[in-house]
Amino acid sequence: MTWSSFWKYLRQHWMGLFGAFLSTLAAAYFNVQIPVSIGSITSVITTMVNAGEAITFKEYWERIKEPALRFAFVVASQAAASFATISILSHVMEGVAAKLRHDLFDAVQRQDIEFFEFHRTGELSKRINQDVQELKSDAKKLLNSGIKAVAQTAGVVQVLYGISPTLTASLGVGVSGIVLIGTVIGKMLKKHSIQANRESSACQNHSYESLSNIKTVRAFSAEDKHLESYDELGEIATLSARKLGYGIGIFQGLTNLALNGLVGGTVILGGSMVGSNQLSGGDLMAFLAAVQMLQKSLATVSQMLTVYMKMKIAGDQVFQFISLEPGRTVAEQDGKRIPHYKLIGNISFDDVDFSYATRPDDPVLKKFNLQMSSHKVIALVGASGNGKSTIASLLARMYDPSGGKITIDGVDIRNLDPKWLRSELIGYVGQEPALFTGTVADNIRYGKPDASDLEIEDAARRANCHHFISSLKDGYFTKVAERGSSLSGGQKQRIAIARAIIKNPEILIFDEATSALDNESEAVVQKAIEENFKNRMVLIIAHRLSTVKKAVQDIIHVVEGGKIVESGNHEELMRKRGVYFNLQNQQSSK
Ligand SMILES: Nc1ncnc2c1ncn2[C@@H]1O[C@H](COP(=O)(O)OP(=O)(O)OP(=O)(O)O)[C@@H](O)[C@H]1O
């Protein structure tokens, strides 16, 4: 963890932190005063007992009044200081954690799509929630108990030095040795801790993946298989966590051994100093009492070292991504926007090369060329895995090509403002539409945040979903369950289509967007799209040729092996008796 990064967040709350620091010191001071003031009361009682006289409560109170009131003051002040420390620290650290979560979520969300192919959702979600939470609570512990223990240690060392500089110096040598050994063990523990963290993440990812695909798991009756692999990962994680636990146990045990050894050593060395008249017996007793207090404080310091290690690991996870620069295609917000009156919408792919970052040696497109004129309905067809969706993703600038260029009206899309490109110019409806938590209306309004209820209803009618939405108990205000699980695939697709229609983009991409609809519904939706997008471009991607046949498309491009191998309308392509003809025959014979 880079401390300067964390400090940037803490600095914003410096007044609160300073207040917490002062109240921690005060709490430490009053902590030390509590046994002292109890001592004063006890000595009055001892004197009283030794005198052996019977006294009334009033007389008794008169005698202990002063130390008792001092005790009450010390205890009340200690309680107030503890309350202040904990409240201020909670206030400050909750603010720090909220800002960290915000910045981390923002940084992650702004990465290129490739980033999400390398990092799993479970891992990212753990960093944003669990690791920030751990960083916050560990930092709180350190700032509270850590500072208190260090302050108490400093106070006690001063007292010790006042009693015997020689004994204090020998104690110092012993403590330094312990700290040195502790540092070495600490480093080893850190390695274990990182490993334990990694293995617990793997476990978490597994459960996340299984639960988010629960329907598939259930359909294959694979619960036992998933539980088995979860247990396997769990066993590895448990083993690592146990090893870490043993390590921490050894560390704490050795620390206690060493600290108790220090007390023993002090008694023996102090005793010899008493023997040679270098120290009085009373001073040795006082020194030992103070060493016990030092021992307690040092034990807390050693616990805090463990907390510090955990905090550093959580911090590494958090700050690694917070400091990431925004992804290329998101960062360039200052790119060009083609003014509406100039926009025609002609698209050209010129010698485009592309391979996915996860499979760099497996190019999907090689010197790919395609010209698409605006105001047309264009279809890309071809067998699965031939690169149709990749072409759409490149156009929506989810990825950038590694060679060649894609232009809209002659402007390289890398020079266009990506936010404008995606939010205004291009509308994209994919095969698996994602719905968000909220109502049906909220999900349609996602395409145009300021849309009126009437506009929402209009878009829904065009997407052929008004009827089914109206039949729901709460109509447009029906809550959509997590990821739309309460709706059918076709219903989700129609809501996603309504969301794209309401956005009213110049170029509308339908990537297998009607694949879950029945024939009748698909025809209604396609007709509505063609009518509404007459003067724009609609790019329909399908491998089900019936989809394409129903659309009154101007041109069909057949994609095979990342290349356009045939182009024309349905009749022309059938006459060619080539790839399209074969696809058609294969599908109609099914
Ligand atoms: N995110 C990805 N990472 C790595 N490879 C990918 C990724 N997405 C697609 N591919 C690969 O790229 C190739 C083209 O896939 P693409 O999805 O573009 O094909 P498609 O023609 O649209 O197929 P479908 O009709 O099944 O959707 C395939 O070999 C596929 O395995």
UniProtKB/TrEMBL annotation:
Main subcellular location: mitochondrion
Pfam family, any one: ABC_tran
Family: Belongs to the ABC transporter superfamily. ABCB family. Multidrug resistance exporter (TC 3.A.1.201) subfamily.
Transmembrane parts of this sequence: 12-30, 69-93, 167-189
Entry-linked SUPFAM superfamilies: ABC transporter transmembrane region, P-loop containing nucleoside triphosphate hydrolases
The protein's name in its UniProt record: Mitochondrial potassium channel ATP-binding subunit
Compartmental location: Mitochondrion inner membrane
Keyword ATP-binding: yes
Gene Ontology MF terms: ABC-type oligopeptide transporter activity; ATP binding; ATP hydrolysis activity
